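Q: What does the assembled structure look like for these inputs?
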Amino acid sequence: MTYKRPVGTQDIVPGVVEEWQYVESIFRAMADDYGYGEIRTPIFEDTDLFLRSVGQETDIVRKEMYTFEDRGGRSLTLRAEGTAPAVRAYLENNLWNQDRERVVKLYYVAPIFRYDRPQAGRYRQHHQLGLEVLGSPRPEVDAEIITFAWNFFQRLGLQGVQVLLNSVGCPLCTPAYVQKLTAVMQESLGDLCADCQTRIQTNPLRVLDCKLCQDYVARAPRLADELCGECDDHLVAVQATLNLLAVPCTLDHTIVRGLDYYTKTAFEFRVEGIGAQASIGGGGRYDGLVEQCGGKPTPGVGIGIGLERVLLARRHAGIEFGADQRDGTFVVALGDGAWNEALKLCYELRAAGIRSDVDYRRRSLKAQLRLADSERYVSAAILGDDEIARGVVSLKNMVDGEQTEVSRSELIVRLS
RNA sequence: GUGGGAGUAGCUCAACGGCAGAGCACCUGACUGUGGCUCAGGGGGUUGGGGGUUCGAAUCCCCUCUCUCACCCCA
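A:
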């Protein structure tokens, strides 16, 4: 083995890719039902897009981006996050169509790259199922995205999914809260963990979700209690809508998210049993991001769902996938003279939309039937000199072993 | 970036200083035109890589790579 896949990446091979396709298909079907359109953006973007949107002081920017220079000297970065590229594309393609209030609903299924140390549920290339709604400040939209994710997880059979909700305020109320928080934290600065001692300067809200410093966080005022009237109303309305739609959620004051662009609603979906990385989805509102990216002031909300973690959660929940479904007809040739005829029949079946194959190793009848069985064909069409002479095939059912003679002309109809 | 655990056949693992093995899988045959069950036989390995100690290393020591779990952080 000369080459190995890069650290933190994975090959998704036949046998496991089917469950990925299944989960993706549920997501796509639901996105369509909810009125979202798919957007596909480049796998890399100008580095600046991430620097300016995600935030200079976030871990993603500070130590996790896959940044490289192309031959033209441009600094590019592999997609570190889904929202910024979507917003960029929204502006660049004028999806808002000159109507600033137009509600544009986008979804994506895309690989995300972060230079992290891999562990359970964490990869350097992972995949996110994302939703973004641009143009609406309404709390019902926040609730729609959360409800979508909740229903998606239900549909996939995940039990015990926790929905954690919070508000990180807006430029009107957050700064005042940050001042209060900083003041309280300064009192016990020496007791905070090393990270928080710097965080309190660079990104004060992040202190709230530090696992080590929760004792001190508990003494500080809660952000949700310090919101301005508009942010408070918004949070209450999101909760009310979720309640209306029967989505259970818990207010959690430590949810602040790791990206700088969030305003008002911040939320996270967690599930136990898949390791330390328990978050299977997260997102929030970003009312300032579009403007920051050079557009007119436009509100937005979004979510990213971790595909690998959803798959992990399904496995942990004991959900079996793709048991032993059989389909198609394997063509078995008997005798040297039958191979060409078998090949022709195989292509006829394929052209008729019937899964089919032959044994290119031209082995014995026994070996061919074994192959048909292990490749999960539901039947085998046996062609020997005898059958060819009479214009028939011996059609063997691979489940019960019963065999009948079918004329070549009726075969396709019979199998369709 | 930091710390713990682990790398032996395609897979799961044994051998723990003395001839590298088992189960499963794969291939062939018993059954020369009938898969699964059974039985018999067969192919498969630079023991992750490099260096060192030793008469002798999968085994002990050092380095390195990878996997894995956790911290940090995120999906």
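The longest strand of chain A covers residues 104-113.
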